[in-house]
């Protein structure tokens, strides 16, 4: 009796579970299983258990790849925060008509292919690009500046690509802020700056943490940006996975790297959930 | 006479094209409990925010201890606000909330601060709650912390914006007494905003009645209640029967007026000086709870027929039809007379309960 009732109650969840199972669960299990398998000399996957893939993942050469990927993602998060926070803050404080327009302008670039937008940076930064041409014509420099194919170039690309996520996340957080808290702070004698650091900033930490997560995770996998702007000079996780899965003909190794990336993401999500939980108890800052 | 603590001088405030405050002028004396009373949207909260510095004024001046503060930022004015929703900082515990003011102003050492926080926490009877977070407190407790957070700064004036609005009836009554006591104890000047006339009448030394951005009347609760300056105040404060009457005669002692077919004398010194002359239509306003119903004919009363008897708790509300005009009488007990619906009765009232007021252009809009 009771059991059938329970089944009836949970019935609407079943399609969702099947959906998630197919789209998330099955691929994840596939990747996990693949990472423990071997390949033959032609690159075909063979059903033979091995830990070799993981041994290669923790090889110092590849650990460096993890490190540079982590550095790229963390710096992208930090820079998008530093540039995006003021933008989000002022946007959220605009009157409603201007605010909607500003949000549309922030989202607008999403309507153009991200590949095209990355090529745009080559036109700007390349040796015969806009910036170099202009500086040469103005006789400020004699030799074109070598701005392409650095770690920094990739960082510019990921920052540019992902900054809207940070802006939107912080924007929502600032928008939810109770204005009377800021007024109470002024009223109690705090200047605008002190109010910002004592009230606004701590109360928008969930937005900052959310934005950071939204930026950090995709910047680990945007291999086309490091391909186009980095020219393969610095190797990131996304590139390794891409290369091993395609040209390298080593899907099990690619899967092992993917698992490594998932672990990295889980660590960030764990930190994120801790920050949010502490926020609720008011212990942060 | 002592100089006023705060002076508002012909303050005008616009939001876009709408005129929110119209030539508001009044003084606040040191140590008094002053209430700004009016219906919602009348501009009373805006006045409070102008004093706090959270709103700019378009013209006029605000003087605190004789010095203009209108161009000072809110953090430079020695006034503090208890906000309607309390506005406690949700990420700080009670101690840090209360300590916020002195800390941002760096006005005392942490050691001194601990003692001050302990003092104000005791004052609002919240000692022992220092470690709690705001969301762990009840509405009444939050309110006490909001008051403590403001009082620790020893403001010249404490501004309170409908602080009891969110509390239930019982707690509200209790907090009224508490607030009045706290005000006497700390000798702090309170400016209190409310739309609740009972709160205003119970707690205040003086009341400023405001409607549509204009000051209607200023005076002690007794003055406001008994001698309203105009129709708005008469209608807003207390429950009154408000009727148009014909002024037949006026002399040094009374005014003779006609309501329906009844002719009655209104005895009050103010009516005689009123700006209306014989033959004009004026407004008669009588407190419902200062009226009596008798079964016998009595002189100087209105005679009519009982239309409706409604028992509302301790009150008996009776509607009497006097020549087509409905007069509502509120009694707490029957006076020597058992009337039923349809009976002929006489309605009389205490002299202090009735006032005559001049007609106003928009008098038709009141519930006369």
How would you characterize the overall build of this protein?
The complex is a heterodimer of chains A (285) and B (368). Chain A is mainly alpha-helical and 285 residues long. Chain A has a single domain, classed as MetI-like fold (Orthogonal Bundle), CATH 1.10.3720.10. Chain A is 75% helix and 1% strand. Chain A has 14 helices and 2 strands; from the N terminus they run ααββαααααααααααα. A two-stranded antiparallel sheet of chain A has the order 1-2. In chain A, helix 2 (13-34) crosses helix 14 (251-281) and helix 9 (179-187) runs antiparallel to helix 10. Chain A starts with a helix and ends with a helix. Residues 281-285 of chain A have low confidence and may be disordered. Chain B has 2 domains: 6-226, Rossmann fold (3-Layer(aba) Sandwich); 239-357, Nucleic acid-binding proteins (OB fold (Dihydrolipoamide Acetyltransferase, E2P)), CATH 2.40.50.140. Chain B is built from 10 helices and 20 strands. A 6-stranded mixed beta sheet of chain B has the order 6-7-8-3-9-10, sandwiched between helices. The longest helix of chain B is centred in the middle third of the chain and has 18 residues, at 169-186. Classes of the chains: A mainly alpha (285), B alpha+beta (368). Chain A binds chain B through residues 178, 180-181, 183-191, 194, 198-199, 202-203, 279, 281-282, 284-285, and chain B through 52-54, 73-75, 79-81, 83-85, 87-93, 100-101, 104-105, 133, 149-150, 153.
Order of helices and strands of chain A: HHEEHHHHHHHHHHHH
The CATH superfamily title of chain A? MetI-like
**Pairing-aware structural class of the strands and helices of chain A?**
mainly alpha
Q: Radius of gyration of chain B from the CA trace?
A: 25 Å
* Shape-level CATH architecture of chain A: Orthogonal Bundle
Strand content of chain A: under 5%
CATH topology of chain A: MetI-like fold
Kindly report the spatial arrangement of strands forming the biggest sheet of chain B: 6-7-8-3-9-10
| Helix percent band of chain A | over 70%
Task: Quickly give the structural class of chain B.
Answer: alpha+beta
Average of per-residue pLDDT values of chain A = 90
| N-to-C span of chain A | 52 Å
Tally of separate helices of chain A: 14
Give the C-level CATH assignment of the largest domain in chain B: Alpha Beta
Arithmetic mean of pLDDT of chain B:
90
